[in-house]
Amino acid sequence: MTHPAPAPGDDALVIAGKPYRSRLLTGTGKYRDLDETRRATEAAAAEIVTVAIRRVNIGQDPGEPNLLDVLPPDRYTILPNTAGCYTADEAVRTCRLARELLDGHSLVKLEVLGDQRTLYPDVVQTLAAAETLVADGFDVMVYTSDDPILCRRLAEIGCVAVMPLAAPIGSGLGVQNRYNLMEIVENATVPIIVDAGVGTASDAAVAMELGCHGVLMNTAIAGAKDPVRMARAMKLAVEAGRDAFLAGRIPRKRYASASSPVDGLVGG
Predict the structure, then answer these.
(1) Distances (CA, A) of 29 to 75, 93, 95, 202, 221
(2) Cβ(205)–Cβ(237) under 8 Å?
(3) CB-based contacts of 253, cutoff 8 Å, min separation 6
(4) How many other CB atoms are found less than 10 A from the CB of residue 218?
(5) How far apart, in Å, are the Cα atoms of 91 and each of 7, 126, 140, 174, 256?
(6) Measuring CA to CA, which residue among 222, 164, 174 is closest to residue 198?
(7) Is 30 marked active-site?
């Protein structure tokens, strides 16, 4: 479906100057086929979808099925990512290829991995790649660890969104360090989007209740028994978590607090 642009004053997620209604970003890998990819993306109501340039065809293989046929760029913001890159040079080359394939598209998701088992980011290589890409005119959304100092540095470099992990990629463990995320959010100058580790709807809601501006996920949806139903659940969870954050939760207490006053009770 085509998503209408948010009206001025709406609670929009703004990335690189563009407002989005949806705060749920989704990946496009690991689905059974392109039709399931399309149906899950629509059920999630995602407007930004990530594409692993090294793994998914968006035109570099003319004879193969093209993801853009089911998720056209006039309906979705395509977010090329550098999944599978282990050096800054690899990541920079991949982003430049994506820019050529997408006619000058500048919005990219940077990830430089440091370990094949955990898929943790190599933060030294990530910083180097981010500096190069920003200087080259890219709008960089960057996957990183949940280190508050590093997240601040990436924003200072000029990244348009910082994307700390909640837990290792594909682990489904949910948010493992709430306090780091809270510190990152409280000092944020750009959108903070949780990337990696979400397993189910409650994980997404927790991330949003902590004040994160959005959540990106792939495995949690694509790996579910019913990806389309899970995509819908994630959409609702992100919306509920955002509303709860904006509403402001009650303080936690160790004792009861009556819903109704005890003074003036009949027969008192």
Answers:
(1) 19, 21, 18, 22, 10
(2) yes
(3) none
(4) 25
(5) 36, 9, 12, 27, 54
(6) 174
(7) no
Beta strands in the chain (DSSP E): 13-15, 18-20, 24-26, 48-52, 77-81, 107-110, 139-144, 161-164, 193-195, 214-217
Cα–Cα dist 169/126, whole Å: 16
pLDDT tens figures, 207-224? 999 999 999 999 999 999
Instruction: Please determine, for residue 257, whether its predicted confidence score (pLDDT) is greater than 90.
Output: no
Q: Which of 18, 30, 109, 235 is catalytic?
A: 109
Longest distance between any two alpha carbons in the chain, whole Å: 83
- Nearest of 95, 170, 161 to residue 132 by alpha carbon: 95
What pTM, to 2 d.p., does this model score? 0.90
143 strand-pairing partners: 163
Token couple for 12: 């929009």
